[in-house]
Design brief:
The complex is a heterodimer. By secondary structure, chain A is mainly α. Chain A is built from nine helices and no strands. Chain B has one domain: MetI-like (MetI-like fold, Orthogonal Bundle). Chain B has ten helices and no strands. Classes of the chains: A mainly alpha, B mainly alpha.
């Protein structure tokens, strides 16, 4: 059932973005604030925890279950539930986004550090490195690609989901997307294009950060553009 | 807003319709079991069935495409990069945006929803299937050749069965994430568990949000469990290895 193949809408949408650039910029800024706040909190909570558990090689059950549960939680449901308990507002939506961002970051940090070759750690210990030095100079650099894969998954997820936040009064580009009455289909499509570009840009930017942080000797193994989807395959 | 949630024009006052019900419903308490009982067959069950349908169709089509693509690229490595890049870009487009981007092309239809949902399954299913096929040890393939199996026989009898764990791992992720994504489909069509959630959000009706939300999460967990059982049934050799 195809209803009118009207590609003119896309041209109109781009025109809308250009004409209404002040509105778009304002909403994009809100969108970024919301996403950045959520990512910052999620990183502070999940990254040290995941890396520490991975370093201790403990808590695999926790890490795996958090990942599975995270996938099973629909973002809409999290936002709706946050709305029920915390009401409308920036922080209620931000908190919902934190809940969504934690699983990929935590699990990837755990799996990454846990999977660092025991020989490398052993050698570092033999060189007389302290625990902290081993974490900072051996485990984290070697785990970097996977850790970043998790962060990038989370960022794409958060930027995407922040759109739904509009339904619960969170602001951002979703405000335009869910309000066709005011902005028309061209507005909706235009804002949708902006969200997509934003997500791709955030992912690409983090890819560059990842490259910059990766020690030169390990660079060959990083992918410039390939989101982590958690293949769920345990390698032997 | 496009789609089913756009109704309620001027002159139609939006009256929160919590149902003429108990005190619990009228006061909009956190959770009212009586509302769930009253609206199970009218609201929740149909939404649940639609949700399952949306998911099954999306994953089935996505799996067929991914399997075909993986089989092709398994032999023809050149084709891998384009497919991965394409599916990775699709995967990165936010669901709500993709649904809206497809509306001008396919309208407010199930097609729009399914195209988007299928798109999201491709990367996971393709990667895992290919990884499974490639993960077959070289000596096993050597042995198959030594036994005189043709390429086709090797594929069907050796490579695909050995790829089952990886494929099933991908299917689990795909099914669970499709169930989650399908809630957003309610922006386009009045179907699935997302629809009652969106409506309830508008009226701030707690019970409906929580009931439909729990159903969506429960559905994902049950589906995941069923796939684990299916994997066990499909790979009896893994069980004997575990038992040993």
């Amino acid at each position: 059932m195809i209803v009118g193949f009207d590609l003119g809408v896309f041209a109109d949408a781009l025109e809308f973005v250009v004409d209404e650039r002040r509105l778009i910029l304002e909403k994009t800024w809100e969108h970024l604030e919301l996403s950045a706040a959520a990512m910052a909190i999620a990183l502070v909570v999940a990254l040290p925890l995941g890396a520490w558990l991975g370093h201790l090689h403990r808590g695999s059950v926790l890490a795996v279950n958090v990942a599975n549960l995270g996938r099973a939680l629909p973002s809409l449901v999290i936002i709706a539930v946050a709305f029920v308990f915390l009401g409308v507002g920036f922080w209620s939506v931000a908190l919902a986004l934190v809940v969504l961002a934690i699983p990929p970051i935590l699990t990837n940090a755990y799996v990454a550090v846990d999977g660092v070759e025991a020989d490398a750690v052993e050698a570092a210990r033999g060189m007389g490195m302290s625990r902290w030095q081993i974490i900072r100079r051996i485990e984290l650099p070697l785990a970097l690609p996977l850790i970043f894969a998790g962060i990038r998954t989370a960022v794409v997820f958060v930027v995407a989901t922040a759109t739904i936040a509009a339904v619960a009064g969170g602001g951002g580009l979703g405000d335009i997307i869910v309000n066709q009455a005011a902005y028309g289909l061209e507005g909706v499509v235009g804002a949708a294009i902006c969200v997509s570009v934003l997500a791709l840009a955030a992912d690409g930017l983090l890819g560059l950060v990842q490259r910059a942080l990766t020690p030169p000797g390990l660079r060959a193994s990083t992918h410039a553009f390939e989101p982590d989807v958690g293949t769920g395959v345990t390698r032997r | 807003m496009t789609g089913p949630l756009a109704q309620g024009g001027p002159g139609e006052p939006v009256i929160p319709d919590f149902g003429e019900g108990s005190d619990c419903v009228v006061e909009n308490r956190l959770f009212c079991p009586d509302w769930v009982a009253d609206n199970w067959s009218g609201v929740l069950q149909p939404a649940l069935v639609e949700h399952v349908k949306l998911t099954v169709i999306a994953v089935a089509i996505g799996f067929a495409i991914s399997l075909a693509a993986a089989l092709v690229t398994h032999r023809l490595r050149l084709a891998e990069k384009p497919f991965v890049v394409f599916s990775a870009i699709v995967y990165t487009i936010p669901s709500l945006a993709l649904f809206q981007l497809l509306v001008p092309v396919t309208g407010l239809t199930v097609t729009t929803v399914e195209v988007a949902l299928v798109g999201y399954t491709l990367l996971i299913l393709y990667r895992n299937t290919l990884e499974g096929l490639r993960g077959v040890p070289a000596d096993v393939l050597e042995a198959a050749r030594g036994m005189g199996l043709t390429r086709r026989q090797t594929l069907w009898r050796i490579e695909l069965p050995l790829a089952v764990p990886a494929i099933m791992a991908g299917l689990r992720v795909a099914v669970v994430s499709t169930i989650a994504l399908a809630t957003v489909a309610a922006l386009v069509i009045p179907e699935g568990l997302g629809y009652p959630i969106f409506l309830a959000l508008r009226e701030a009706f707690n019970t409906e949000i929580i009931a439909a939300g729990l159903l969506a999460i429960g559905l994902a967990l049950v589906a995941d469990g069923l796939l684990v059982l299916a994997e066990r049934a499909l790979t009896p050799w893994a069980r004997t290895r575990r038992a040993r």
